[in-house]
Alkylhydroperoxidase AhpD family core domain-containing protein
Amino acid sequence: MAPGLVRFALRRTLRDINHVEAVRPRRARGLVRDVYRQVERDFGMLAPPIALHSAAPDVLAAAWLVLRESLVAAGTASRADKEVVAAAVSAANSCPYCVEVHGMALGSLGEPDAAAAIEAGDTQAIQDRDTRALAAWARGEGRLPADVPADTAAEFTAVAVAFHYLNRMVSVFLGPSPLPDAVPPQARAKAKTVLGYLLKPGAVPPAGAALGLLPAAATDGPGWAPPGGTLADAFARATAAIEAAGERSVPSRVRELVRREVKAWDGKPPGLSRAWAEPVLAELPEHERAAGRLALFTAKAAYQADAGVRPERTDDRALVELVSWAALTAAVAAGERLPHRPRREDSAGRRG
């Protein structure tokens, strides 16, 4: 299967996005067009986890901003190490789509054994000690190696937060695999090889090029990001855009309830039953419970947020904004639960 055909097939997967209709590339205008062009230039393809946001242009820009500046853009950490974090967070969140994508990317960077161990949920099987520790940290199961500099630790945290967010969006709006259903079973192994090749990064784009997609924020970035740096600026702009979207599309009582529940949560999945949510939702007025249910499931159990919980009379933009706000609220809390800095600082960079 030729790379061009895989790129074409991936564009066609925009039709497989669930519950909302993504803007087609040829119809993209304004901010959506600008984001699409950057995604294809810097990521190598129009990734459906970003395109699914396109009904809400500001939220689309925010999603790309956090992905680009955490995972894709130049920094002190290697792309392979950042892919370890992306894959490990995705595995912890039971997001098979993202595990597959970032496992393929990690394999293309020379770490197929680590990718396989992460996908199997067995980080202890990773042979390299630093990689094993990094994957365990990303899953919330340990600390970073002591010699990781503070700036590099911040980059790893940025990737973790970005994927806690994207995993939830993908779980709601996409299926379990990045390959379209049209790819026949006998061709899937070859298609994954080609897709892994396409995911292998080329020239590393400079940090900060996506900042201009959104206005500067009035607040500082997250506490784990170096003050005044690109990551702080990127996450502040993205957070401001998604918070504004939440104010438009999420009832204030729902926002208060979800913030309270996420703050008290330890991050562990509540299980397969949905019964846990009903006593919490009972405090909402009846007409807000559907929105509350979707927001709460997105934050704490995105695998339970299917089409059956979509609020009535919610258009695509409002639906994306509601889910995005809940996903970011949970992602920010997940980032705060991680140890952000190593136990001692060291000016030496991490490998690669």
In short: DSSP finds 15 helices and no strands in the chain. The chain has two domains: 3-213, 230-337.
